[in-house]
Amino acid sequence: xxxxxxxxxxxxxxxxxxxxxxxxxxxxxxxxxxxxxxxxxxxxxxxxxxxxxxxxxxxxxxxxxxxxxxxxxxxxxxxxxxxxxxxxxxxxxxxxxxxxxxxxxxxxxxxxxxxxxxxxxxxxxxxxxxxxxxxxxxxxxxxxxxxxxxxxxxxxxxxxxxxxxxxxxxxxx
Amino acid sequence: xxxxxxxxxxxxxxxxxxxxxxxxxxxxxxxxxxxxxxxxxxxxxxxxxxxxxxxxxxxxxxxxxxxxxxxxxxxxxxxxxxxxxxxxxxxxxxxxxxxxxxxxxxxxxxxxxxxxxxxxxxxxxxxxxxxxxxxxx
Lengths: 173, 137
Prior knowledge:
The complex is a heterodimer. Chain A contains 5 helices and 4 strands. Chain A is of the alpha/beta class. The termini of chain A are far apart. Chain B is of the alpha+beta class. Chain B has helices spanning 16-32, 37-58, 91-95, 100-109; strands at residues 4-13, 66-74, 77-84, 112-117, 123-130. A 5-stranded antiparallel beta sheet of chain B has the order 1-2-3-5-4, with helices on one face. The two termini of chain B are 13 Å apart. Classes of the chains: A alpha/beta, B alpha+beta. Chain A binds chain B through residues 19, 21-23, 51, 53-55, 58, 83-85, 88-89, 93, and chain B through 16-17, 19-20, 23, 37-38, 40-42, 44-45, 48-49, 52, 55-56, 101-102, 105, 108.
């Protein structure tokens, strides 16, 4: 079974900054409903999210189920720098999110959406141990992202050092 | 002999913006006690869920009131109490799912919790967290 053409469209991105609780619940519901209604893949980036309550996470789960019915990819971005409490809430504590793809970066979200034969059908069943497996998959991916970030920082540092060395050499000559 | 120390006493209106005020105030106490990020996160979430229930359910059909937030340290435990003077709740209402998911999380993250309520006289939820030995003062 192939995904509908709309599933390959540019994703609708929802960036969450700050706290998700009853005070922002209406905003979250509206944004998610609008994104799913656009018939595009949905990416919810929790990169700047500082807190989420159970209802906010369940709302994500409901929106993901709705997207799933329409065969639209729905991916949550939870970066490796996310607060531990948020990580546990998403990956362990709220069962409604057990079947939702959670990745550590927007880059990983786009890669997941771009896969040639995405299985976004609604027939996915949660196997025993799936929650633990998913948590370890996220942790491995997060470790990968962290290593890439560290490598990038090292490369930048190396370039800066080389420039400083060249400047010193020029002054000496 | 165990001595109970009150670390925080707040009265807040039962409105959505109080939820954040309440959870951050409790998290601040946990941080002052140097009791670890995990306990701060757990307390933050549990307080948020408890206060959300107050804001959503306590004053339905009556004039909106407030709630008390109390944090005590007692014999290696952190006690957090959220008390309203709303319509009260019953076991059957809780079974029907009123505040149900929040309570499940509270049940998982606390050492224990208790709800005292009678219809018409408000609700008190007491959540007990274990403090690590180094943070007991």
